[in-house]
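[DERIVE STRUCTURE TOKENS]
===
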Amino acid sequence: MTDWDQMPFFLAVARTGSLRAAADTMGATHATVRRHIEGLETAYGVQLFRRSRQGLTLTAAGETLLPEAEEAEVLLTRARNSLQGLDREASGRIRLSVDPMTGHLLLAPILAEFCRIYPQIELQITLTFDIESISKLETDVAIRHAAEITDDVIARKLQPLPIGIYASQSYLDDVFDTAGRQGAGLTFVGYGPFPELTRWITASPFPKAAVRHEVSDPEMHLHLVRAGAGMSFLASWCADRFPELQRVPGTALDETRSTWVVYHEDLRRIRRVRIFIDYLSQALRMLGRTVR
């Protein structure tokens, strides 16, 4: 048995944090996953995981192996995708649900490349902030941003989604140094009656900052902040796409949320859906390694 035969099991445990969850992801048994991990540790002569209250966490050796394993996985997936794209069985329609900001700014080039490789697969893309039901098959695949997924679905955690307080450099230059204590004189772009925003602001270093405007669309927040309208809570990848954005001095990132791809258990038996989810997962995971 080669290392790569065991490597998918290593990646599954690293991503899920438990043997049982990894087994569910792989469609294998708990014992099978454990056997492959133990075999890999024996082959390398190192311990890759340690047990903790949170589950299985990577050792220093495991942390060293992880990016190399992910890179190898991506290369193999790309090669397989390029070949499978010619397969007539990889055809049909897939319904994808994603929030507009992620769809416009992150997914568009990924989906365009997927369509090039798989010309027989048609995408029906719904851009919405609503949580379309997977269990009721309102959509086939959904991208969600949450601390955890509690629905009765299969969920793959793709990458952390750090959230921070951002403003344009010009806004910071104009007003930050003259602001009063606890943010008096600063401005947050508001979402309207959104209780979580109030909690975020209260817990921030700027509880006395004014909340102005009512803007329900996060992408509009992004563009208003870029133009100097004030501060807002944005995903950290926004600053990598738009260098005029800066994390406000004295603030920290909230790293409780992650990006997930979710789908109904029955759909994993449909080949075009499996291909799409694997491609989407790899592309977003690799993208996550390039952003702060």
Observations:
- The chain has three domains: 1-84, 86-144+261-292, 163-247.
